[in-house]
Amino acid sequence: MTDRITVLGAGLAGSECAWQLAKRGIKVKLVEMRPGKFTPAHKTGSFAELVCSNSLRSDELTNAVGLLKAEMRKMDSIIMEAAEATKVAAGGALAVDREGFSRYITEKLTSHPNIEVVNAEATEIPEGDEVIVATGPLSSDAIADRIAELCPDSDLHFYDAVAPIVAVDSIDMDSAFRASRYDKGTADYINCPMAKEEYLEFVKELVSAREAPVHGFDDANVFEGCMPVEVMARRGVDTLRYGPLKPVGLIDPRTGVENYAVVQLRQDNAEGTLYNMVGFQTHLTWGEQKRVFTMIPALKNAEFVRYGVMHRNTYLNSPTLLDRYYRLKSDTRISFAGQMTGVEGYVESAASGMLVGIETAARILGFEPVDFPRETAIGALSLYISGGSIGEFQPMNINFGIIAPLEYRVKGKRNKNAVISERSLKIIDGLMAEKEVFKV
User: Fold this and answer.
1) Is 91 exposed, middle or buried (0-12, 13-18, 19+ CB in 10 A)?
2) Does residue 414 register a pLDDT over 90?
3) Is 353 exposed, middle or buried (0-12, 13-18, 19+ CB in 10 A)?
4) pLDDT one-digit tens code per residue, 263-317
5) Burial letters for 49-61: b for 16+ Cβ neighbours within 10 Å, e otherwise?
């Protein structure tokens, strides 16, 4: 076992990973191609650059990302430390001074005696050392080719075409029914019917809804093989009724007849707490998705845990490739961290880097693994990535739907989420008191 780790990429995940290793006395070689070479999204040579929003989202414990941040703070996250040092007013959210945030992290890592920074493009995965690949969804072509060589056919995706996902407990089941088309198999789908007037108004708003801007690193050809629902709607008022919203074979048990149109929701995680909107890949802005899709009666109060997106996003088919430590199953010398693993969001990317750093340090130092459980947000995320989804794997933000539920009922969603968060933070406290890797 080596006492030196190579981390490729100094984004949020790579920076957090390098910090967790270095603070435990492990030598880190941190390779970052910027400022010598940029991606189409990055503008500076600083580490952990925020390329989109300056918000790290909700800071409340009734929100899953707020819980994840609280767990990370307990475990001495450099990302959370930088965010606290550079935060700006943003109500219940945690937002930061973008440049100050990246500058803080860059200065901390470049001045650490256990971190050697190499400003060069990584074109190969080094032999010998343990390697953590955190080069991000916009990895350069050279390293993307090396990563592809590690993946079986179809296990490296270059485009996202993702339908929205909703929390099952936010669906109005008085306006929906469970059934499979033609009653084949079990009633696995939640069906959301629409009357003719509701459907026509929905299509009217859908065809005129605002689309997200296409960034320079996107490829418009993605639309040729995966048509957005709004494009289908523009081809004719009944196109959706003969496509993803077709009512044929779905008898409404409340009336005994077929409805005018039906939106189907399909289970998205093993626990049955999340459902995706079948056939609803979309390029609408998130605000427009919420406005238009909540016109569907059963989704009038829907909680969208993930909105639909269509853009370039290089990511692994992680459940077939990675274990709960984000290690490559076929070569455990190599680990991955960040968005490439299928986590979505700044905080989730950093959390994956944190877990990889802590578990890799434990392995190198001869300690037992932490094995973060599904009752914690950081553990639930890694277990989802390594096999917690069913069907075709898609990237995911942290949400309470993938965290282990309580074994007893708590009235009210916010109260329930608060109790889940309290349980999780107690578990983190226990792990930190018990596991040797937290004592160095």
Assistant:
1) exposed
2) yes
3) buried
4) 999 887 767 888 889 889 888 999 999 999 999 999 999 999 888 876 566 788 8
5) bbbeebebbbbbb
Q: Are 372 and 425 in contact (CB under 8 A)?
A: no
Quote the CA–CA distance of 429 and 239 in Å, as a whole number: 54
CB 398 within 8 A of CB 348: yes
- Strands 327-328, 309-316: pairing is unpaired
Structure token pair of residue 380 = 């639930």
DSSP state of 389: B
Statement: residue 92 has pLDDT above 80: no
Tokens (6 digits) for 10 = 């100094």
- Written as one string, the DSSP assignment of 250-289 is -EETTTTEE-SEEEEEEE-BTTS-EEEETT----B-HHHH
For 323-349, letters b (16+ CB in 10 Å) and e give: bbbbbbeeeeebbbbbbbbbbbbbbbb
Rounded CA-CA distance 298/317 in Å is: 32
Tokens 């459902």 correspond to what residue?
A: 275
Q: Are 49 and 101 in contact, with CB atoms under 8 Å apart?
A: no
Residue 106's pLDDT is 97
Judge whether 394 and 269 are in contact, CB under 8 Å. Answer: no
Mean residue pLDDT of the chain comes to 89
Q: In the numeric block, which tokens belong to residue 234?
A: 């523009």
Q: Cα dist. 118→10, 43, 121, 340, 353 in Å? A: 10, 19, 9, 21, 19
Helices (H), 150-225: 196-208, 222-225
